[in-house]
Amino acid sequence: MSSININDKCIACKLCVKACPFDAIKIEGKRAVILDNCTLCGVCVGSCKFDAIDFVKDETENAVDIREYKGVWVFGEQANKTPAGVALELLGEGSKLSGRLGAELSAVLIGSDVERTAKLFIAHGADNVYMVDSPSLRHFNDESYADIFVQLINKYKPEIVLMGASTYGRSLAPRISSRINTGLTADCTKLEIDADKRILLQTRPAFGGNLMATIICPNHRPQMSTVRPKVMKALEPDFTRSGNIIKPDVKVPENLDTKVVDVVSSLTQMVNLTEADIIVSGGRGLGDPKNFCLLKELAKILGGAVGASRAAVDAGWIEYCHQVGQTGKTVGPKVYFACGISGAVQHLAGMSSSDTIIAINKNPDAPIFKVATFGIVGDVLQVVPALINEFKARLA
Amino acid sequence: MNIIVCIKQVPGTNEVKMNKETNTIIREGVEAIINPFDTYAVEEGLRVKEKTQGKVTVLSMGIPAVAELLKETVALGADDTVLLSDRAFAGADTLATAYALSMGIKKIGLYDLIICGKQASDGDTAQVGPSLAEKLGIPHTTYVRKIEELREGYIRCQRMTEDGYEVIELALPAVITVVKEINEPRLPSIKGMMRAKKAVVTVWSAKDIGADLNLCGLKGSPTQVVSTFVPVHDVHSEMIGGQPEEQAKRLAEILLSMRFETGA
Lengths: 396, 264
What we know:
The structure holds two protein chains of two kinds.
Chain A: E1 3-6, H1 15-19, E2 25-28, E3 31-34, H2 43-47, E4 53-56, E5 72-75, E6 78-79, E7 82-83, H3 85-101, E8 105-111, H4 115-123, E9 128-133, H5 142-156, E10 160-164, H6 167-180, E11 184-188, E12 190-194, E13 199-206, E14 211-216, E15 223-227, E16 244-246, E17 258-265, E18 278-282, H7 292-302, E19 305-308, H8 310-314, E20 335-339, H9 345-351, E21 356-361, H10 368-371, E22 374-377, H11 380-395
Parallel strand pairs in A: 5-8, 5-10, 8-9, 9-16, 10-15, 11-15, 18-19, 18-20, 20-21, 21-22
Antiparallel strand pairs in A: 1-4, 2-3, 6-7, 12-13, 13-14
Chain B: E1 2-7, E2 9-11, E3 17-19, E4 24-26, E5 32-34, H1 36-52, E6 55-61, H2 66-76, E7 80-84, H3 94-108, E8 113-117, H4 128-136, E9 140-151, E10 154-161, E11 164-171, E12 174-178, H5 190-198, E13 202-204, E14 224-229, E15 238-240, H6 244-257
Parallel strand pairs in B: 1-6, 1-8, 6-7, 7-13, 8-12, 9-12
Antiparallel strand pairs in B: 2-5, 3-4, 9-10, 10-11
Helix pairs in contact in B: 2-5, 3-4
């Protein structure tokens, strides 16, 4: 069994105690002791200046012959033949990664009547599109999509598989990785390649964004990640690019235990927060639920979506689907307006990766100002109408 | 109906305080709590039980101290609690966690519905629910905001999506992961707290559940953390003063000069 052991070189300096993210080391007598809640993360080993911590790892044999696995794959997520923004972003990122590896970039496209979508993926950087086209696959289904995806992985053996950290991607990816027993890293915000070892370095936030971790999957293939929307950049489409549309011979599963019987789009058109470039969010500082109409108006002028803090949602001022933050949605727009939001850590966890943050709050000490690119101390009910007038005049 | 709810122990706060001198994390005095998302899973399990005359078993994997959190769910109405606790489980990633939970669930035996929170507040991965369903070879759906209908061998529920929701039917047994919108968790009753005091948490080791040690803990985890760091939020803030009209004018000028594209 793997373990972390303290050897005789320990002088009880406490550096490891402070370094441990899990509070799992204490000093007993003149020596550090590893407690039961140690998760074997290994942070302490790097913190020790005296070479007093031994990390004994069980040898893990390669589960598969990793040299057989080549190429970078992107899940070509789409709905009604329209690709998800994150799928195009991943093709942009995937083309960089495949370039570093000297390998091909492929999209996996599952759907019904999606040939035009396949061409769009080629224009956005795919060398190949593995297209599985059947009327029964018109709508995303965890069970059938996972089944087909696994057949493709087993047949073509990609070394890397990327999916958007969307509702579907976060549900499909773990189902697949669990079936083929490989590693999966969630919600990555940065991907790099160690070209010599052909290893994907996957960096992701943990603890609500307060800690970043870089994760690898050295002995299993494919290396799988879900990647947050709005972090990677899509390529400008080039419709003169050529690529192969491959129609692989797979078995489309029937008699499923999972059925999608209805798909309901929200009545408010302005909810798709994860794909929005501009978000206007409101909190309890709005004073009254009816003041959300001001934010809706500003969002409409700017072509943005409306978000909300947990406090506003819990008070029943706006529906849960608008909630940004740890218990709601994670967003990363180009511009985020926080109107009357104080900026609790849980809220910051959901929006602090936005490119530009504008905070409007009457309390100059509100924590939201610490992450704001631009801050306005003032009454939301005066500043927002003034902004509406200003943008109306300028964008008319 | 027999329901199994999976819960995880997480730190009560995600605020990572830094010791600036040593560039290390201060985590002293942080209490352990039930992952907030899992409290909705427990509540939903109890509601299903009340409607169907069933039984709720709450399952967790972790250090021995997690037993105290499991007892809290007894105070809410859980019938049984099981803790998988063994040093062999330490260092598990989501795959190894799902494996261990699946072995625990197989030992528990009869179940119709497994409910998990949508994700844990410390790791935020949302991977264990779907991975667990796969290990058990049963269907799953995620982000459930409402159970519309539930009967022998059948569940119909609403899954939240980016721009609305879907209505999904699953054959039972199945795994669902739930979002906050699904319910409002109850508080423990006095009677429940009395019951919790006397409750005995069943603790199983890797051997007890017949787990293959090669698939548990660090050894069973394909992913490895190679480094961790605290992100530097080097935000250059600019405060805009003046009257609302002046502030609005200045902000509009700045944003439009950044040439951000509006969809309007």
